[in-house]
Amino acid sequence: MQKFLWMPCPYGEYTVLPFSSMNILGWTVMVAFGFNAAISVRVSNELGAANPRTAKFAVVVAAGTSFFFGLFMALILIVFQNQYPALFSDSREVQQLVYELTPLLALSIVINNVQPTLSGVAIGAGWQAYVAYVNIGCYYLFGIPLGLLAGYTFGMGVKECLRFGCGLGTSNPSSVQN
C-alpha cells in the first residue's frame, strides 16, 4: 500500500500561493534577472579592461537600483494591500490570506531583487562555480531539510512555513555571497 506525503493545510492556503504571491514575485524577479545579466556583463567588461574602480561603482549602482526597485514594488503592494487580492480570486477567504501574506511577499520582493544582482556580480568576476555551489548548497542543505522539518515534524501550516522558510531561504545566499 502506498502512502502519500501531505501537509494539513486549509484549501485557501493552496490557492493563494500560486495565483497571487508567486505571480507577483515572479514578475519582479524577472527585473532582477535583468539586473543579474547586466551587472555580470558590466563587471566582466570593466575588470577585463583593468578598471576595478569603475566595476565597483557599477556594482553599487546596480545593487542600489535593484534594491530601490524592489522597495518600490513592495510599497505598491503594501499601499494596495486591500485592493489587489480581488484580482486573483473572488473568495473572501483567499483574499484575506493574500492580505495576511502581503507583508511577507513585500519583504521577499525586496530581498529577492538584491540577491540575483549580487550573483551577477560574482559571475562577472569569474566566480560562477562559487555562485552555483552557494545557491545549490543553500537550497539542498538548508531549504529542503528545514522545510520538511517545519512542515512535517513541527506541523506548521503554509503561512508559518513561509514566514520561517522565506526568511532563511532568501537570506542564506545573500549573506554567504556578501
From TrEMBL:
The chain crosses the membrane at residues 24-45, 57-80, 130-154. InterPro entries: MATE_fam. GO terms for molecular function: antiporter activity; xenobiotic transmembrane transporter activity. Keywords: Membrane, Transmembrane, Transmembrane helix. GO terms for cellular component: membrane. Pfam families: MatE (PF01554). Belongs to the multi antimicrobial extrusion (MATE) (TC 2.A.66.1) family. PANTHER family: MULTIDRUG RESISTANCE PROTEIN (PTHR11206). This is Protein DETOXIFICATION. It comes from Camellia sinensis (Tea plant). The lineage of its organism: Eukaryota, Viridiplantae, Streptophyta, Embryophyta, Tracheophyta.
